[in-house]
Amino acid sequence: MTDRAVPEASGTPHRVPAGARSPDAGYAAARLALLNEEGQPGPSRRATLADLTDRWLTGLFPTRPTGTALVAVGGYGRGELSPRSDLDLLLLHDGTAGTREVSALADRLWYPVWDLGLALDHSVRTPAEARKTAEDDLKVQLGLLDARHIAGDPAITAALRTAVFADWRAQAPKRLPELHELCLQRAARQGELAHLLEPDLKEARGGLRDATVLRAVAASWLADAPREGLAQARTRLLDTRDALHLVTGRATDRLSLQEQDQVASWLGVLDADTLLRQVYEAARTVAYASDVTWRAVGRVLRARSARPRKRFLGRGRVEPVDVERVPLAEGVVEQEGEAVLARTARPERDPVLPLRAAAAAAQAGLPISVPAVRALAAAAPALPVPWPAEAREQLVTLLGAGQATVPVWEALEAEGLITGLLPDWERVRCRPQRNPVHRWTVDRHLVETAVQAARLTRQVGRPDLLLIGALLHDIGKGWPGDHCVAGEVIARDVAARLGFGRADADTLALLVRHHLLLIETATRRDLDDPATVESVAKTVRSVECLDLLHALTQADALATGPAAWSAWRASLVADLVRRVAGLLVGEAPPGPPTRELSAEEERLAVEAARTGAPVLALRAESEPVAEDGTEPVGVELLLAVPDRPGLLPAAAGVLALHRLTVRAADLRTADPIGAGLVTLLSWRVAAEFGSLPEVARLRADFARAFEGSLDIESRLAEREAAYPRRRGVPAPPPRVTVVGGTSQVATVIEVRAQDAPGLLHRIGRALEDAAGVAVRSARISTLGANAVDAFYVVGLDGTPLPPDRAAEVARELEAALG
User: Name one Pfam family in it (predicted).
Assistant: First the structure.
């Protein structure tokens, strides 16, 4: 492995002193040998690299310094030198030497560093200049707090360190709020390390930058971070960054997907998922310590600015008044903005106290104090199994607090209380989700789903079952196989543990087993097909369960991410629920769909039959954004064209050329004036970029495509060549299946593939090429980078395909897409 050369950042060339441009081959060889040593990265290798670099730089420094010193700051100052870390160096001088002499000394030091291709962050200052720069720049201030003498006059370094720490402690009441605000802004930009698939190990919330900030807060003497596990978490993040540097050969902090397996191997970790879980664990420890520390800083600063409360006893005598403690629940009080244990609390005798304290804190919108959580973790006895009713009610109360549940849950989890209460939680804790649609790890997604479900408890008859179902719906993701099937078994066990009766356990098991039923059916199946509604009704069995499943579906999707829920999806699910509810309350089941044309569809069909040309209309929905943040349904595109083969792939190709994303598609035929069949294609579309295309341009391209003069394949290929998409992690191959028992009027063929421009056009072409197959309707669904499309196909006689023929069509389609 060789070091990559890093060019000098300055645009002003330095004068090169004689003999200063010969790199020290001994240091370079020793450095390379150290980085190529067998074994995992760790603190000893970082310290050895820093010591090796110290000795090399000391050899470059004059043997008789006069008021000058070379000082390491930042990570190098802490003696933590990663393989591709910058050398953060400060050349300190007392101002007695001339400018030319100081400049020559700087050249003597900086040029050998550049010659070896090492990244260098350097400065030349007097102690007064260093202190003034630190006063103006918090980043410089934090770096100087880790200042370490390397060479030269140690007295000048020691004096600077003393002054810098004195300045920091004196200015802490003013500077710490500024530092906290910078941390919040950085977290908003970079996200939470503990939930990112490609995290920035340094800048994301819970990363190395936050760990450095905690050292600075401790140095202010105003507050200190919880120490348990913090050093190990920081070491884990540093080791991961070291391995990332060695794998990539670059000074990067971004743990990209394509490098995770190699980094895991370098660290001796089983696989990339195990690596991410360890990184997430470390990030949560740092993030939790940060939250606790900043709350402590806030309390100290408020106490300093507030006038002390006193009680007057008469004759000039006063005594201080204790901090106010407001009761929240039995054994729990509020003190200084936190939920703490009451003086009369006896956690060793009260197994329900952890849940009671957590529920009271969340309902009051308060964090629970670290000493309280630790006392509960150390002393509270285990709950009996099954749980007493109070414990179950307190868990439901905690989950029903909405967003305030999250920090309280994290506090309990940090001290191991959650896995003590729910042992099955351990398998999903910090478990990454590789699907980019998900914004959270599995465990945090479960909590966030409960947060969303708390907003919907007024819509169901059993809010307790909704909240517990939300907490458990993905609990099976920690086990092999279908997580819905595994989750059903776990849900029954947990329900028994919590003390629910058999009927409630059956309901919870149904919610977990079928939590994807409504969204998948609504977006991938034909709701006009009687078999669709009947199959859902048979599964849910009652209106009460249907309402619970409807609320859970919405909460799950909202907690997943923006791509999982929209007004369009909400409308489809609501339509399905309405139909199923009608069937469950005894309404006559729907017969075969009549598919009567609307006035607009009839007008377009008549015009197409009369002119023999395609006719279309774009109709934007005026629906406002919903309170839950879902987007409007979008735009409906109606297209009528005289019936002919190849309409679906041609129409889909035109939409792809105009960068229109298809959300749903429906096809039907009519003979409005007795002059021949007209095909009606109804699309739900959205512009991929910018605004919608002009109707006239769309109509012209549709006409050219249908008459065969528009070469769609060539146009799509040209656009792909001109604007190639970035190649990331290889996608799994497409999968095509025949879904049996879901329709009485057609054969349902489901396609799962990586979404890409023109995908629907390719699918349509492949289906049209399969002789004797016609597409009756389609359900198009895109989740992140994955397309899940269902096509209702029939033979030339209008009936479903025989099973053998259906399987053959599926194989041909999969081969065409592969």
Answer: NTP_transf_2
